Amino acid sequence: MHDIVIIGAGPAGLTAATYFGRFLRPTLLIDSGVSRARWIPESHNIPGFPQGIVGQQLLVSLREQAVKYGTTIQNGEVHDIKSQDGHFELNLGTEQVSSRYVMLATGVKDHLPNLRGADEALMRSLLRVCPICDGYESRGKRIAVIGNSDRAEGEAQFLKTYSDRVALIDISKFPDPARRRRLDAHAIEYLEAKLEDLLIEENDLRLLQANGESRTFDYFYTALGCSPRNKLAAALGTQFDKNQALIVDAHQQTSVERLYAAGDMVRGLNQVVVAAAEAAIAATAIHNRLRNAS
Ligand SMILES: Cc1cc2nc3c(=O)[nH]c(=O)nc-3n(C[C@H](O)[C@H](O)[C@H](O)COP(=O)(O)OP(=O)(O)OC[C@H]3O[C@@H](n4cnc5c(N)ncnc54)[C@H](O)[C@@H]3O)c2cc1C
Fold first, then answer.
1. Ligand 1, CB within 6 Å, residue ranges
2. What is the pLDDT averaged over residues 106-135?
3. What are the chain's domains?
4. What is the pLDDT of residue 49?
């Protein structure tokens, strides 16, 4: 029986593991290896890295720190979780793990546009998902936001801080005249297109237009959203908000007793520093509860 098991080795889970290790409670951390942070081409908004840091390097450093303080990182996926007799039973397929406390740090899955070369374009910064992360690096560039939602409209407006050349490419079947008017008022172009008209090229991005002409852009921002990886939490009956993000209390406990959560899967800003901060809060709260119980 473990005191704590962490599920997910992104910035949230790995930060929590370091905290637990330094509280002299080395933990088991189970991870399926698809952290969003592995896509970060180079981040410039993570404190302490004025020259920027590549996402995969950040993950290596976070892992090294967690392991230094005794964390055991096990590759694998938790398929199911049950609450019974005051503890949790985790099903990893080939084995079961029992723990008094569980910390979920399973992140979200991005909805990327179904474009040839999209994954690779993310790593090259041509395709982007997060204006808060890298809007600064888009200063003065030709930017197109892909989407047809209020979220896409909001992102296009946000990016106007950085460039006068922002367009929204609406790939829906039913373009919205009201949205066009609102964007016009902000001097944001509104373009209608089919997904297959968007091309990822060597150094830029191309939109093939109905009139046979084409336009090029420096960056596409996809505003198609993401889904929290919340299957395990849902199996335990936790509360979610309308976007299916987990609702937690001030100490990161979910609506299920002894089940904590941190990072992108929790309601709030999807950022590395937020994930790390939530993990620190959760780890400290769990440690104090275990300390007071012993
Ligand atoms: C292209 C891109 C650029 C970005 N740039 C920045 C930036 O510049 N600055 C910034 O602050 N943020 C940036 N972000 C966001 C940042 O990557 C996330 O906020 C951060 O990774 C969230 O950390 P997390 O630990 O919550 O989740 P993740 O990093 O996604 O980690 C979740 C982990 O849980 C594991 N997992 C999921 N389900 C299971 C399961 N059932 N069993 C076992 N393991 C499981 C996954 O394999 C994964 O390793 C960027 C994101 C992208 C995609």
1. 7-13, 30-37, 39-40, 43, 45-46, 77-78, 105-107, 110, 122, 129-130, 133-134, 229, 232, 263-264, 270-273, 275
2. 93
3. 2-110+226-293 (3.50.50.60), 118-222 (3.50.50.60)
4. 97
Instruction: Please answer whether residues 188 and 157 qualify as being in contact, where contact means their C-beta atoms are separated by less than 8 angstroms.
Output: yes
DSSP per-residue letters across 38-54: GG-S-BS-STT-TT-B-
Helix (H) or strand (E) holding 34: none
pLDDT on residue 16 = 98
pLDDT digit string, tens, across residues 240-293: 999 899 999 999 999 999 999 999 999 989 999 999 999 999 999 999 999 999
Distance 31 CA to ligand 1 centre (A): 12
Mutate to test the pocket of ligand 1, among 56, 106, 132, 134 (most ligand atoms within 8 A of CB): 106
CB–CB of 115/198 below 8 Å? yes
Query: What is the atom index within ligand 1 of the atom nearest the CA of 270?
Result: 19
As given in the structure block, the two tokens for residue 50 are 């004025």
